Amino acid sequence: MSKKIQGLAEIDRIIHEPARLMIIALLATVNEADFQYLHLATGLTKGNLSVHLSKLEEAAYIVIEKSFRGKYPLTICRLTGQGREAFDNYRKVIKAAL
Amino acid sequence: MPISFFRSMTADPSTIAERLVIKAKFRDGLLEIYLGLIFVLGAAFEAALYAKQAIFPQGSTALDVAFIVISIVLCSLFVVYTVRSKGAAKWVRERYLIERSGYVEQKLNKRKLLRYFLVAFAAFLPLAIAALFLFPAHSDRGLSTATGLMFCGLDAWIAWFGRVFRFAIYSVLSAASAIFLAVTSIDIAAPLSIFFAFLGLVMVFSGFIVLLLFIRRPAEREA
C-alpha cells in the first residue's frame, strides 16, 4: 500500500494540474476538438485555456493545428500517442493509490 | 471551471468527457430536428400501411397503385433522409454554428455502440412480450405501449447521462403516451404511427426553438 502511495510522488505534474487534466480527459475520448469546444466544455477562460494548451503542446501531449475558417481562426487540438500513454499511466497511478 | 467535473472525478474521466460530448451534440437542437423528422417519416409510412390494410383492404387497382407509389415515395424519402441529412446537419453546423458550438469529432466506439443496442433490445423484448400478453386482442396497441416505455427509458438516459434536461420532458411524454395507449378505451387506429408522429413533432418543434435560441446567442471568437 505504501509503495502505491509513494507512486503519487512521481505523478506526471503536467497532467496533474486540474485544467490540463480536464483538457486531456476530453481529448482522450474524441478524435479531435477545436478551441471553442474545449472552452465551452471546460469552462476555462480563453486566455487560461490557451496557456494550458501551449503547455500540453510543449510536452508533446497534444498537437495543435491552426487554420482559418473564413476570417476567423480555427484551432484544432488532438491527443498524441505520447499524451494518451501519459494519461493512461496517470490514471493507473491514481487508481492504485486511491 | 465546472465544479461538477471535479465532483465526478472519482468516476471514469472518459465517462465525464463522453457526457460533455453528448451535451455538445444536443446543444444546438439540430440532432433533435433530425431525429424528430425520422420519427415523423416513419409514422407516415406506418399510417400508409394502416390505411391500405384497414381502410382499403379490397380497394380498386387505382388505389393499389396509389398505395404502392406512396409507399415507394415514403420509403425513398426515409432512405434519402436518413443517409443524407446527417451530413447536411454536419454541414450546417460547421458552416453556420461552429463559432458558437465549437467543433468536436467523436471517436466511433463500435463495441460500445453494440453494447448500447443490445441493452436497448434486451429492455424492449420483455416489454413487448408483456404488452402482447396484456393486449392479446390489440397487438399493435401493446407494441406501441412497449415502444413508448422503451423511448421513455432511452430519453431518460440521455437526460441523465448527457445532462440534456429537455429529454426528461420527452421521457415523460413518451411514458404518458405509452400509458395512455395502454389504458384508454378509445379505439385508436394505427397507435404506433400516432406515437411516433407525436414524439417526432414534439422533438422537431423543441429542436427549432433550441436552434433559434442558440443562433440568437452572440458568437464568441477565439482570443
Question: Summary?
Answer:
The complex is a heterodimer of chains A (98) and B (223). Chain A is of the alpha+beta class.
Please specify the SSE layout and strand pairing.
The complex is a heterodimer of chains A (98) and B (223).
Chain A: H1 2-6, H2 13-16, H3 18-28, E1 30-34, H4 35-42, H5 46-58, E2 62-69, E3 72-79, H6 81-97
Antiparallel strand pairs in A: 1-3, 2-3
Chain B: H1 3-7, H2 13-25, H3 30-55, H4 61-101, E1 104-106, H5 110-134, H6 139-161, H7 166-183, H8 191-216
Helix pairs in contact in B: 3-4, 3-8, 5-6, 6-7, 7-8
3D structure, described in words:
The complex is a heterodimer of chains A (98) and B (223). With 98 residues, chain A is α+β, with helices and mostly antiparallel strands. Chain A has a single domain (2-97), classed as Arc Repressor Mutant, subunit A. Chain A has 6 helices and 3 strands. Chain A has helices at 2-6, 13-16, 18-28, 35-42, 46-58, 81-97, and strands at 30-34, 62-69, 72-79. Chain A has a 3-stranded antiparallel β-sheet. In chain A, strand 2 (62-69) and strand 3 (72-79) form a beta hairpin. By secondary structure, chain B is mainly α. Chain B has one domain. Chain B has 8 helices and 1 strand, in the order H-H-H-H-E-H-H-H-H. Chain B has helices at residues 3-7, 13-25, 30-55, 61-101, 110-134, 139-161, 166-183, 191-216, and one strand at 104-106. The mean pLDDT of chain B is 78. Chains A and B meet through helix 3, strand 1, helix 4, helix 5 and strand 3 of A and helix 2, helix 4 and strand 1 of B. Strand 1 of chain A pairs antiparallel with strand 1 of chain B, so a sheet runs across the interface.
